[in-house]
Amino acid sequence: MHEPDQHVSPIRNWKQLVVVVVLAFVVPIAVIVILSQYVTDIPVRPGDDDSAVLNRISPVGNVELALPSGPKGQLSGELVYNQVCKTCHEGGLAGAPKVGDKAVWAKVSAQGLAPTVDHAIKGIRAMPPKGGNPDFENVEVERAVIFMANKSGGNWKEPPAPVVASAAPAAAAAAPAGGKPDGKKVYDTACAVCHAAGVAGAPKFGDKAAWAPRLKPGIDALHTNALKGKAAMPAKGGNASLADADVKAAVDYMVSAAK
Questions:
Q1: Dihedral angle at the C-alpha atoms of 172, 173, 178, 182, nearest 10 degrees?
Q2: For position 231, what pLDDT does the model report?
Q3: I need a labelling partner for 18 at 20 to 30 A (CA). Which of 33, 110, 168, 225 fits?
Q4: Alpha-carbon distance 242 to 169, whole Å?
């Protein structure tokens, strides 16, 4: 009697093989889908599209991070003076009334507070609007004018300003979030007051002929001059709160425009 072969495969033709292969893929996937729906307890109803499902599982609220920024109009007259006005008004550069010169400031004060502040805000002769920093609020510029006038024998009343711990945040603002100093921003706030128009012998921004002899000693020499001051230019453009890296970035920005 012939015994049946125990090693004969149950798959006897190619059609059965295809069915087995398909089931091997479909069954695990179906099991995973069923388990995921069970765990999340969010059944997918017939006819639901992707947007409907996403709406049901979306969070109740969203958290948005705002960029840090201080309130406007907070700087005192002294801080504004130290940041932009000191560059010219401390030494009387380009005809700027020197702080402490009572005779000169008596003439300035004689025209009245409103016209004097208006000149400071809009700019007059060699002085750019708001001392070259358009970010200042008008009231901050007014405080700076009054501060200088009162240091020179005046008695104008400065608009009240909250106490600001230091000028460091203003200097830090020159650097973007990544930490790399923004040379253009430093130039706009500290250097443009003289370099935009070539005041007091400062090489004018973008004037290749004026910058050519200054480029010969090398960038390190230019950095040193900007940090320590040279001739009519005060150290760090008159803003001692600037970091060395900020000053160097401003020099690099001006040099790049002069090449």
A1: -100
A2: 76
A3: 33
A4: 10
